[in-house]
Amino acid sequence: MVLRANVMSPRIFWFDFRRALVSGLRWILLASLALAGVGALWLGFERGLLKNDEFRLRELTMNDNAALSEARLLQVTGIDLDGSVFDCNPREIREKLMSLPEVQSARVSRSFPGSLAIEITARQPVLWVACQEEGRLARDPASGLLVDRDGLLFPCTAAMWEEAEGLPVIELEKEPFPLEAGMKVEHESFLRGMRLLAEARSASPEADEWIDTIRQYKGWGSQLVTRGGTVATFGHRDLKRQMNDFLTACEHAAGTGRKIATIELVGRRNIPVTFQIEGQAPPAPEPPREIAPTRPVSDLQKLLER
């Protein structure tokens, strides 16, 4: 048997209290010293790196591309031209660039002591998409949308206009979902228009020069409108044969000094054709709105050296 007795007196209590107080003060002192050390290290890091003029952003380069101007780059990424190269996170900058529908790929690299290089690949437009019901006008840089080979919609930038203004247009009816930049068009009328355009490009390398608009027609066919005003009606099947018949008819009419006004190519025989009346102007497509000429933004290097 073990007998334990706890004896407490004012003197013993004061002794225990003083020992606990000294121990607590010792830990507080150690914690304060640790915090002071961390603060000193951070202050040294900030002064030695973040605010060191040697690591100031001195060189910012971007390759020539049709997606972003230099001013737009700064607006989208928020790069501080007066800041440090440590403020430029390559991954964050790339994510912001890739969020733009007109950018297909982006590469950002940082080099010390003060360089940042950005390489951008813009999407390549192959045609316009128009929808009157949604206010998406053909060949309109403000409201129109371009499409790349993957069917992805993106806006027309000022640098793209010269290349894009002459591209064909696929005119759509009201879509189940609003047409917005960044979405992929998978509507059946669009896919049918793409198949007809692909057949025309396959049969004629100059197709983009003479095709103006392709549109859905009465649910069972598509109409192709040329820049000369010819309206050709195609069925959804047997496109290769119909396209060959169309090109042959146009070539024959040109050989006789005439221009086709309308032609229906669904049937294999007795293809209905009407001709344009001499002196009568063909129905020209609505001209695009004017766009301000592309003006180079101030050079990035000059901005950095201001």
TrEMBL record:
Annotated stretches, region: Disordered: 278-306
Lineage: Bacteria, Pseudomonadati, Verrucomicrobiota, Verrucomicrobiia, Verrucomicrobiales
One Pfam family recorded for the sequence: POTRA_1
Gene: ftsQ
Primary location: membrane
Keywords: Cell cycle, Cell division, Cell membrane, Membrane, Transmembrane, Transmembrane helix
Any Gene Ontology biological process: cell division
Protein name (record): Cell division protein FtsQ
Residue stretches making up the POTRA domain: 55-123
Organism (species): Haloferula sargassicola
Compartments where located: Membrane
Keyword match Iron-sulfur: no
InterPro entries named in the record: FtsQ, POTRA, POTRA_FtsQ_type
The keyword Cell division belongs to this UniProt entry's keyword annotation: yes
